[in-house]
Amino acid sequence: MKAVPNTSAVLAIAGLTARRFLRSRILPIALFFAFLPLLPYLLGAGEDASEQTRWKEFMAMSSGIQLLVAALLAAPAIAEEIEDKTYAYLWSRPIARWTVLAGKLLTASVVGIAIFTITTVAGMAITNMGSSTLLIEAIVGLSLGVITVACMAAAFGTLMPKHPLAFSISYFL
Questions:
Q1: Whole-Å CA distances, 99 to 18, 38, 106
Q2: How far apart, in whole angstroms, are the C-alpha atoms of residue 124 and residue 135?
Q3: Which letter does DSSP use for residue 46 in this model?
Q4: Which candidate, 142, 103, 145, places its Cα nearest to that of 4?
Q5: What is the reported pLDDT for 111?
Q6: How far apart are CA 155 and CA 127, in angstroms?
Q7: CA–CA separation, 138 vs 74, rounded Å?
Q8: Which of 12, 41, 54, 88 has a 20 to 30 Å separation from 159 between CA atoms?
Q9: What local confidence, expressed as pLDDT, does residue 113 receive?
Q10: What's the rounded Cα separation, in Å, for the pair 132 and 70?
Q11: Containing H/E element for 85?
C-alpha cells in the first residue's frame, strides 16, 4: 500500500468532517449560539448608548459565545473517533496520525471563522459602527480565538473522550 501525501490526507479528512458537519445538528446549534449576541440589539437594547459602547458590548458577548461555539465544533473531533472505535481503522491506513486531527481541526476552525465573520459583519451593521478597521481587527481577533479554542477543545476531547464538550465548556467557564 502506497502512503498518501500528508496534504492530501488532511484535505480528505477535512472534506469528510465538513460533510459530517452539514449532516449533523451541530451546525444549526452553533449558528444559533453565534447569532445570540445580536438579539439584544435587534430588540432595541442600547439605543441611547453610543455606537462605540454598543460595539464594545457586542464584541464582549461575541467573544464569550465564541468559547462555546468553537468548543462545540471541535471538542468531539477525536473523541467521536475514539468512542466509535474508528480511530483504529483510520490509523491503520497509510496516513500520518496527525493528519486525522489536523483535518478535523481545519474544518472546525474554518466553519467557526466563517460563522463569526458573518456574525461580526451583522453586528457591525446592527450597532451602526462604521469603521472598517475595527471590523477587520474584530474578525482577526475572533478568528485567532476560534483556532485557539478549537485546539484546546480537541485536546480535551482526546483526554476525556466520553464527555469532551462538557469538559471543554466547564474548563472555559
A1: 15, 36, 10
A2: 7
A3: T
A4: 103
A5: 94
A6: 36
A7: 21
A8: 12
A9: 96
A10: 25
A11: none
Task: Please report, to the nearest 10 degrees, the dihedral formed by the alpha carbons of residues 88, 30, 107, 85 taken in order.
Answer: 0
pLDDT at 20: 86
The type of residue at 141 is G
Count how many residues are written for the chain.
Answer: 173
All residue ranges of the chain with pLDDT < 50 are: none
Q: How far apart are CA 115 and CA 28, in angstroms?
A: 11
pLDDT of residue 68: 92
CB-based contact 104:20 (threshold 8 Å): no
Grid coordinates representing 34 are 453565534
pLDDT at position 90 is: 64
Pick left, alpha or beta for residue 31 (phi over 0 → left; psi -120 to 50 → alpha; otherwise beta): alpha
Count of alpha carbons within 13 angstroms of residue 141, beta-carbon side: 12
